[in-house]
Amino acid sequence: MSTKQKTVAVHAGSRLTGSKAVPVAPAIYPAAVNWFDSSDDLDGALDGKDYAYGRISAPNTTLLEEAVAALEGTEACVAYASGMAALRSVFDAQGFKPGDRLVMPADGYGVTRLLYKNLCATLGVELHPLLMTDARTPERIRELRPRMVLAESITNPLLRVPDLRVLSKVSHEVGATFVVDATFPSPAGQRSLEFGADYAVQSTSKWLNGHSDALGGTVSGSAARIAPLRSARILAGDVLGPFEAWLTLRGLRTLPVRMKAHAEHAAHVARRLSDSPLLERVIYPGLPSHPDHAVAKELLTGGGPMVAFEVKGFGRPEGMRFLEGLKTCRPGPSLGDVCTLVMHAASASARRMTPEERATAGIQENLIRVSVGLEDPDDIVEDLLGAVAKVVRK
């Protein structure tokens, strides 16, 4: 089969091994348990040779994992009930011991920060949040010699774009596992494994599903790296359900086409917002004004589907009133839908960070994050600026 992403998205994960029938739309297999006429077949299934029990393996999950691995350009993938479960599984796989160190983005997703902060505190692991786009960070990683380094392809919510090539090189120099949360660009916008990541993590609830109707997460990588994660998932039980897997696979079929449109719309929205005197700053990796624009051009396909902006004179109360004034866009604490989703960053994605952590990251109370949808982009711009103007006039 072709390795071109549009073809892979449509056809990967279409048939189960051992069957000659290939339905155009895969069936949903809701059964949690299967039985066999032959006890030998049952015995083999319990070792993973067939489908015996949903906690071990399930048909819809298998098809999704095959499709995501193909899109990521790698050998294997394991799916979870949520993106946070996926991030937890990668942490657990490192075998951290007291005194070990973990490096993660200081300006990344607040819930990931809280998860790893709590896990590290429990195990006696040192957590070192660093700005991954800072020129001094590679040398700091050399000094710390961590067991694991986590980066985000595009940081949440400030949309910084770290150079994964540099971070992977220094991580491997010191023997660290290099993990990339690549949710924001999706595999259609960046294959982080090609830039040296050992694991690529996706919250499939976002762009892969694309319709906000199924939670999920995946970790992709080499077969050798994924095998222990799969074994651990059998014991932990944080499996993806058949309906969620089916919905995500259905959404994934249009991923390259959707992401191209999302990125084009985001670029248009960013350019028009940049002309508004009401905004203090517009943040979009595809704009020449973005501090990581050169890196983004090399590591991303397009400028990405996300836009952020800061509004002059806005604090949290004004941000809340802005959200209430939206008509076309939807105020929602997520991303990746066909409709535009807008959130006040400090109270949503960065909600679980302390005020000091947000200040260090540069996440201010006037920051708005936009997941640009498939509506007419001019309608999106007019809705955003109209809602800003209503608050400013008051």
TrEMBL record:
Please give the InterPro entries that the UniProt record associates with this protein: Cys/Met-Metab_PyrdxlP-dep_enz, PyrdxlP-dep_Trfase, PyrdxlP-dep_Trfase_major, PyrdxlP-dep_Trfase_small
What protein name applies here? Aminotransferase class I/II-fold pyridoxal phosphate-dependent enzyme
What is a single molecular function from GO for this protein?
A: transaminase activity
Which family is this sequence assigned to?
Belongs to the trans-sulfuration enzymes family.
The UniProt keywords, alphabetically, are:
Aminotransferase, Pyridoxal phosphate, Transferase
What highest taxon heads this organism's lineage? Answer: Bacteria
Sections of the chain in a coiled coil: none
- PANTHER family, per database record: CYSTATHIONINE GAMMA-LYASE-RELATED, TRANS-SULFURATION ENZYME FAMILY MEMBER
Q: Which organism is it from?
A: Pyxidicoccus parkwayensis
State its cofactor.
Answer: pyridoxal 5'-phosphate
